[in-house]
Sequence to fold (238 residues):
Amino acid sequence: MSVLVITGTGTEVGKTVATAAIAAAAVAAGRSVAVLKAAQTGVGPDEPGDAQEVARLAGPVTTAEVARYPEPLAPATAARRAGLAPVHPREVAEAAAKLATEHDLVLVEGAGGLLVRFDEEGGTLADAAELLRAPVLVVASAGLGTLNTTELTARELRSRNLDFLGVVIGSWPDSPDLASRCNVADLPEVSQAPLLGALPVGAGSLAPVDFRAAAPSWLAPRLDGVWDAKVFRGREAG
Fold:
């Protein structure tokens, strides 16, 4: 796996922090890592974006963006309102492929969910993943409502014959409610994909040195970590 596409089931599910954890675990495993933000929205020209936040938390990684827009909107809408050129899936794929020639692992982080539009033609992160023939990781929330959005995302991935690597819970609460505890078992069932990690709530607020030390404990071996889904399920869902 030289390129991994990371999407969320929606906004504010912990996608950037999960990307940082994956990057940190890969760096700890001795791999060179690049992080590509397909379309950064909601930040000004000189403000740090999601890729920079990943680097702050994860350590020595290469960062890149394909496009940046000032308003916190879907990329196609943000580009149109700003009078800027939209980003197209082929541009994302080409940028990721170039980074892959120079790094062991390229993490391509989307904006929002899988089908958020990049351009007026309806191009999406899913289209970029198709062009790259890269596996896709889905970051999901823990609580009520996550089963529906996760299953819908999984169905779209399979309808496109994309390699659905698995699901990571982006923010696991200190005191999970009943829905969250049940979802530990139900997420793999509805997605038909393995649960590959769970990040504790507030992980992104840790000091970078502590974040990097802990990241492998939040992720399964498939993501260079030591997290065990069965142990987690027995402890949290029991």
Residues 15-28 form the longest helix (14 residues).
